[in-house]
Amino acid sequence: MGPASVVFYLAAYIATNLLAFGVVMAFSRVTGLEDIKDYAGMSRRNPWLGLMMLAAFLSLAGMPPFGGFVAKVFVFAAGVQAGYTWLIIVGILNSILGVYYYLNTMKFVYLYRMPNEDEENHPILLTRPYAIALAILALGVILVGTVFAPWFSWSDAAALNLF
Q1: What's the distance, CA 156 to chain centroid?
Q2: Does residue 77 sit within a domain?
Q3: Distance (Å, rounded) from C-alpha 32 to C-alpha 34?
Q4: Helix axis angle, 67-81 relative to 47-61, nearest 10°?
Q5: Does residue 62 fall inside a structural domain?
Q6: Would 162 be classed as within a structural domain?
Q7: What is the C-alpha separation between 156 and 119, in angstroms, rounded?
Q8: Whether the Cβ atoms of residue 141 and residue 59 lie closer than 8 Å to each other
Q9: For residue 18, is it within any domain?
Q10: How far apart are alpha carbons 1 and 4 in whole angstroms?
Q11: Is the distance from CB of 58 to CB of 22 less than 8 angstroms?
Q12: What distance in Å separates the CA atoms of residue 157 and residue 160, rounded to the nearest whole number?
């Protein structure tokens, strides 16, 4: 179960990070801003971009129904099966710590407002390729978390070829 879980985790993690960094790149390209505080009001400026960032960060945090949750469950189950319970406890504590950082960023996206509360006059418009790529990645992160059986069987087959 270990090698298949690692391959599955890597696939879910790559898709999730591509989504997260894609949102950051799209935001930076349109606004020219890169600081966390600059994300204030992003969900009002482009609700879909904010939602995709939320999906990516919740997946990275390991929340259901996203791919990161299922991937962590498989890796933790393989660790328990192999007798590394102490390492799984460290991993779970690390995941809990990571939730703080992900939700801290989402606080700016959803709870804080732009200076002068001027979101309506500063929309974040995405080009069609950016929007399509981010939508496909978001759908992938959700599908990996909800319909994981075929993905895990592909990971198992890949692990057999790799290991």
Answers
A1: 22
A2: yes
A3: 7
A4: 0
A5: yes
A6: no
A7: 47
A8: yes
A9: yes
A10: 5
A11: no
A12: 5
Count structural domains, the chain.
1
Is pLDDT at 44 greater than 80 in this prediction? Answer: yes
Cα dihedral 125, 129, 132, 138, rounded to 10, equals -80
CB 58 within 8 A of CB 66: yes
What is the model's pTM? 0.89
**Domain carrying residue 12:** 2-155
DSSP, residue by residue, 91-149: HHHHHHHHHHHHHHHHHHHHT---GGG-GGGS--PPPHHHHHHHHHHHHHHHHHHHS-H
Is-contact 41 113, C-beta < 8 A? yes
Q: Give Cβ neighbours of residue 150 (< 8 Å, ≥ 6 apart).
A: none
pLDDT tens column, 64-79: 999 999 999 999 999 9
**Helix/strand/coil (H/E/C) assignment for every residue in 4-45:** HHHHHHHHHHHHHHHHHHHHHHHHHHHHCCCCHHHHCCHHHH
